[in-house]
Amino acid sequence: MADHRTSERVVITGAGSINALGVGVDAFAQALRESRSGIRHLSVFDPSAYRSPWAAEVDDMDAAPCLPARLHRHSSRSDRFALIAAQEALADAGLEEEDRVGAAVVVGASTGGMLEAETHIVERERHRSGVRGLLNAPVSTTADRLALHFKCGGPRLTVSTACSSGNNALGFAADWIRSGRADVVLCGGVDSLCRMTFSGFNVLQAIDTVPCRPFDRDRAGLTLGEGAAMFVFESARRARARGATPLAEFLGYAASADAYHMTQPRPDGASALHAARGALAASGVRPEEIDYVNAHGTGTPLNDAVETKIIKAVLGDRAQLVPVSSTKSTTGHCLAAAGAIEALACVIALRDGCVPATLNLENVDPECDLDYVPTSSRKREIHTVMSNSYGFGGNNTTIVLRRPS
């Protein structure tokens, strides 16, 4: 487990979003307050060959801010998600071009331009086509596009640790600020739906045939989603000097590896528990200070039961009193973007005093006996939150955020 402790405070001064619930942070916040789901029948490619047609697909790109025509034309779907979210985050933070000269970029990603690569391969079978459809396939392309378009001249990094990629990207961004490697970092996570991941999860029978039901007795798998959340991280000192108003403080994180199985979590949850406790220690936060837990909450039988054990072990006697929810029931499981999108849900919960709901939870599993905020969001003052992300290969990461003081 990595432990990251330092005196430099890291704050979030800008945020941007695009997912199945809409374009922009305000649209996402409103959907969470209203407990709306973005899960619907997939249309970005034909799902008829798969066991389930459900996905949380971004379908209102027309509402997104316009990108330059050439950039739009040469970017993958994943790239466009990240560019749209980053554009909002930078504007929200009030960072002008001269402020971004030394800015770093850290992006969590897993599929890159795979959708376009798949389309290219299909089209090659029908008629001769060039290689342009393959140019955006590398998972590192999104970070390169962000740095180039927004003129961020600092270091850049692509993090690919499956479904914990987004959370790890935020953690690495905080590390860079605390180590003095960067004063400001554009960071987040992005993924788009593609045939490879959709077919892979279907073959594993990890997809539910109805919209996912985290913590429900009848849960049978996840529902895939797509989108991006991007943030501007900077030192509290720098933010204060330029008069920026923080949205939240990133207190700390920790990561661990199950070293157990490529797709299944360790049944005892020991490694993920190590990450959660490590995140609290790195943040200087006591378990009794946690007001809300954003769960990984995939809706798979193993994950939800194991994560419940982990939360109970971390929070102890207070576990039954702390609201826990899975926003994957609204956004779907956005893979590498999941941690970042859920971190944004936490920022919104801190800002608005509103705990997001776990949708589709009708018959609570006796093994899952916490307060999962079923059906409807809940008004509640929140000061400190914890968010878990667990990925294939046993990649576990927990982050801790707090309302700005």
The value of Rg in angstroms is: 20 Å
CATH class wording of the largest domain: Alpha Beta
The major β-sheet equals:
12 strands, mixed
List unreliable stretches of 5+ residues.
Answer: 1-5
CATH domain fold name of the largest domain: Peroxisomal Thiolase, Chain A, domain 1
Short description:
The protein contains 13 helices and 16 strands. The protein is an alpha+beta fold and 405 residues long. The strands form 3 sheets. Strands 1, 2, 3, 6, 7, 8, 9, 10, 11, 12, 15 and 16 form a 12-stranded mixed β-sheet that branches. Strands 4-5 form a two-stranded antiparallel ribbon.
Your description of this structure?
34% of the residues lie in helices and 20% in strands. By secondary structure, it is of the alpha+beta class.
Tag the structure with descriptive keywords.
alpha+beta; Peroxisomal Thiolase, Chain A, domain 1; 12-stranded mixed β-sheet; 34% helix; 20% strand; disordered N terminus
List the topology elements.
Layout: E1 2-3, E2 10-19, E3 22-23, H1 25-33, E4 40-41, E5 54-55, H2 69-74, H3 77-93, E6 104-108, H4 114-126, H5 132-135, H6 141-150, E7 156-159, H7 165-179, E8 184-191, H8 195-203, E9 227-235, H9 236-241, E10 248-257, H10 270-283, E11 292-294, H11 301-315, E12 324-325, H12 328-331, H13 338-352, E13 354-355, E14 378-379, E15 384-391, E16 395-402
Parallel strand pairs: 6-7, 6-8, 11-12, 11-15
Antiparallel strand pairs: 1-10, 2-3, 2-9, 2-10, 4-5, 8-9, 10-16, 13-14, 15-16
